[in-house]
Amino acid sequence: MDSDTLDRIRSNDHRTLSRVISQIENDGDIPDSFFKDVHTIENQALRIGITGPPGAGKSTLTNLLIQQYIDDGKSVGVVAVDPTSPFTGGALLGDRVRMNNYIWDDNVFIRSMGSHGDLGGLARKTQDVGDILSASGKDVVIIETVGVGQGEHDVAKAVDLTLVLLVPESGDEIQLMKAGLIEIGDMFVINKSDREGAGRLAQTLKSMLHTFTKKGKLEPPVYNTSADRNEGIADLYNALNELLSVMESKGILIQKQLDRHRNRVYNLIQDRLLKKFWTPERLDQLEISINNLETTQTSPHEVASILLNKAHE
Ligand SMILES: Nc1nc2c(ncn2[C@@H]2O[C@H](COP(=O)(O)OP(=O)(O)OP(=O)(O)O)[C@@H](O)[C@H]2O)c(=O)[nH]1
Ligand SMILES: [Mg+2]
Fold first, then answer.
1. What are phi and psi of 27, to 5 degrees?
2. Which of 3, 40, 59, 154 could form a disulfide with 98 if both were Cys (CB 3.0 to 4.6 A apart)?
3. Architecture of domain 3-252
4. Which ligand has the shortest distance to the CA of 227?
C-alpha cells in the first residue's frame, strides 16, 4: 500500500475507500505498516452498531439516521455487514441496503461487506474498515449487521454503542432471551411500531432490562419507531446523543475503546499464531493422522499433542 493511497483515504476519496475496503473484505495482502499509518491518521469517529433480526428495518432506520447526522453537519460512513453472503465485491445489495440516496454525497459513504463464511474474520475486518472510514474523516461510522448468531456479538465489540432493533413479532420474554440480543444492546428500538404488539413488547423489554441490568450499569432505554413512516426518529436520535454523552461522562466510552484495543491485539495475535502454526507440512501431518485414525484409533488429543510438540522441536 503506497503513501498515495493513504493520502487519498485522508482526503476522503470514496473510490479509494471502496478499493481498500474490497481488499480487506477479500483478505487481500495488506501490510501491517499500512494499518499503522491508518491508525496514526485516524480520527476518533464514533462507532455505532445497528443489529437485529432480518428485515426488522435496520437499513431503513440507518438511512434516516444518516439524514439526521447530515442535518447536524456531520459525515457518516456505513458498513452493512451481511454474514450470510460470502462476499459482495463492493456492490450495493440494492434490496438489503436500501440506501441509495447518497451516492453523490461526499459526506456519506456506504458499503456492504460479506464474510467469506468466517465470522471471526468478519469482526476483525469490520474493525479495520472502521479505521479506514475514521481515517477518511467521517464523524460517525454505522455498522449494520443482521442479528442471527455469533457474528453480531463480535460486531458489538467493535463499536462504541450497540442499538438493537426488534419488531413487534420478536416475541415473548423467552424468545428474546434465546435470541441473545438482550445482553448486547446499549439501546433498544422496537421498529414497525405501526403494527400490533409494539406497546406490549416495549413493556416486556423494559421490565426484562430492569431485571437483568447489573448494578452500576446503565439500563438501556427502549424506543418505538416506524422507520418507513419516519415516526419516532427524531426522538430516537436525540436519545442516542444523550445516551452517548452520559456514556462519555461516566467513562464508559473510553473503557469500551480500551477493551476494543486490547481485544484487537489479542485477536491479531491469535490469528497470526494460527497462520504461522498451520504450515503445509503440519496440515499434511494432520491429514495423514486422520487417515490413520480409522486403523490406529489415535485420539484427537494425542494428534494435537504430537503436532504441538513438533512445533517446539
Ligand atoms: N410496517 C413497517 N414496515 C417497515 C418499517 N420499517 C421498515 N419497514 C419495511 O421492512 C422491510 C425491511 O426493511 P429493511 O430496512 O431492508 O430491513 P433490514 O433490517 O435492513 O433488512 P436486512 O438487512 O435484509 O436484514 C422493508 O420492506 C421496509 O419498507 C416500519 O416501521 N413499519
Ligand atoms: Mg439491511
1. 60, 35
2. 59
3. 3-Layer(aba) Sandwich (3.40)
4. 1
